[in-house]
Amino acid sequence: MGWYPMCDISKLKPYEMVAYNFKKQFVDSIRSGDKCQTIRATGRRKHVQPGGKIQLYTGMRTKSCEKLADAICTTVSPIEMSIDDDGLHVWENGQELSFDEMEALAEADGFTEDPLDEFIRFFEPRMPFSGIIITWSRL
Asked: Alpha-carbon Rg of the chain, whole angstroms?
């Protein structure tokens, strides 16, 4: 498997308050505190940096918009993912993750039934993927 260039998180601009929207499937795990991270693509969107405030929502820009929590960003790490004939490959901070580490990443990201399979189904349409992992602590 080849090396994939990591996104340069030093080029991300810090913002004091950022709102993130989550699909309904993640609402319970966010509310319970089991999900304290999100994986987001880098690009034109503004992302929070460590120490920045985060507002967590579901249903943004709809009548059913609901604020789930306020939080503080604790870390931002680059992540790259791809799928080939050998399966899923994930690099966090430039290090390729083992199967067990990918399973733990999927669980931490809110996939619960069959974490790695759910994770792959969710991200496969977005592959290859370049982005960041944002972790938080609730206020």
From this structure: 15
